[in-house]
Structures are given as C-alpha cells and as structure tokens.
Amino acid sequence: MDTETARLILRRTVLADVPDLFEFLGDAAVMRYTHSDASPKECRRRVAAHEWRRRRDGYAPWTVVTKADGRIIGWGGLYIDPFDEGWGVEVGYFFHPSVWGQGYATELTQACLSLADDTLKLPEVRAFARPENTGSRRVLEKAGFKVVRFVPEMERILYRRGQYGEHPAV
Fold first, then answer.
1. How far apart (Å, rounded) are the C-alpha atoms in residues 22 and 11?
2. Domain map of the chain by residue range?
3. Beta partners for 146?
4. Quick one: pLDDT at residue 166?
5. Angle at which helices 104-114 and 134-142 cross, to 10°
6. Is 164 a residue whose pLDDT tops 90?
7. Tens digit of each residue's pLDDT (9 = 90 or more) over 54-89
C-alpha cells in the first residue's frame, strides 16, 4: 500500500530502484549503525526478500521519493525482517546522507505509525537503534517509542510502541 506525506511519496520498491538505493544501502560508512549491502546483487536480494514479505503481510519498506524533485532519498517503513523474523513488526529507515537532519525519518515514521494504528490495527511496532545513533534514537523517542532493553547480541537497543501510542508491559 503506497502513501504520501507532506513532502514524500512512499511507494513499493521495484528492482529498477536498486542502483539508487545501493548508493547509500551499500555504503558501509553511511550504514555504520546497521547492515550494508556488499554488492548491488545483495541489495537486490534484500529488496526482493522484503517485497516477498509485502505480498504475504501487506507491508514492507517503501522507496522514499521527494515530492519536490522525484528523487529517491531513502528506503524504509514497516516490515517483518525476512532474515530475522522473530522480532515481529518493526519500523526502519535508511536515508541518503545528503538529506540527513531534514526530518524525513520522522515524517516516514509518523506515516508508518498511522498505517500501523489506523489501517493494519497492529498491537505494537518495534524498532532497533544502536546506543551511539543519537539521531535515530531521537526519531523513535519523538514518535512515542520506549526503550525495552539492550540486546547484546545485536549491540542495539530494542524499542517498542503499542497501538495508538500505548506502551504495553514488557
């Protein structure tokens, strides 16, 4: 299900998007807090796996395009990680560094939570952030996510947000 925000078009990812996505998803420095794709082939594999989940679940990360100029600037949304399904529904976002600090992650996260609450009626959404990734942690906390615990094997903080901002007991 595609959607729009004030400044963004959030649309289904197609394989033709991979070269633009790989520009940042394949950059180890840009993706230092998470996984980076080693090759365009690996990026295509990740996109294809998430699109398979979209057909199954009805949601997966979108390609993030600016309304102003139609440029691909990010990839993110709600998803169940096809490579590590045990964490349930997560929100994640990855942006080209040229647009960092412009509020796009917050805008995308709000669109995800509206979809989760109003359309999908999900009881909770989770997210992960490394302790040193203060920008991502700020986005999640501003959106109403609360820290659940540090997950040592992932070196990440697990966040949780209940439906309509409720915070169920852990």
1. 17
2. 3-121
3. 160
4. 59
5. 40
6. no
7. 999 999 999 999 999 999 999 999 999 999 889 999
Angle at 152 between CA 24 and CA 35, to 5 degrees: 15
Ordered strands of the 62-66 beta sheet? 3-4, 8-12, 62-66, 72-80, 89-95, 124-129, 156-162, 146-151
**Hey, which bits of 16-100 come out as E strands?**
62-66, 72-80, 89-95
pLDDT in tens, 40-57: 999 999 999 999 999 999
Instruction: Output the CA angle 31-56-140, nearest 5 degrees.
Output: 40
Here the tokens at position 39 are 């090759």
Q: Which residues pair with 80 in a beta bridge?
A: 89
At 47, list the tokens.
Answer: 């996109």
Rounded to two decimals, the pTM is: 0.92
Q: Which amino acid appears at position 139 of this protein?
A: V
In the CATH hierarchy, which top-level class contains the domain 3-121?
alpha beta
DSSP letter for 164, please. Answer: G
Residue 8 CA to residue 111 CA, distance in Å, equals 10
Token digits for 145?
């996510």
